[in-house]
Amino acid sequence: MLKSVLYYLILLTTGVRLVDMVYLLVKGGSNLPVSVMAVTGVMILYGIVIAFQKRSVKIRSLIVFFAVHAALVVVNLVTVKIHVPMQITVAETLIVGSFLDIVIDACAMYAGLKFMSSEFQPFVRVIETGD
What we know:
Layout: H1 2-27, H2 34-51, H3 59-83, H4 90-96, H5 99-117
Helix pairs in contact: 1-2, 1-3, 1-4, 2-3, 3-5
């Protein structure tokens, strides 16, 4: 169940960024540095690779995606803060990412690590007998 939720969260994240990047490239005139677009392209490609591995993807790969995604969002935020003195649009904000992306990635990594640390044990109901 958790693996499916994390997988679909990756699909959503990758899909939104892919659609937004295509929109910005078609529209033209973006204020973002090329390095931000390249880093986002790497994130999109990594998400697509995981998307094609749906059946065989391990939860460890999903956790690695969220760790890499959080790190690259931090890099994008720092790059934009340093190189872009003007305001950026909402579409450009979707490419760069936000603090909320980092929080969501941290929660997903925590849930995945918690799942991996304990062996999966289904809920067992203990019935005490009146001996």
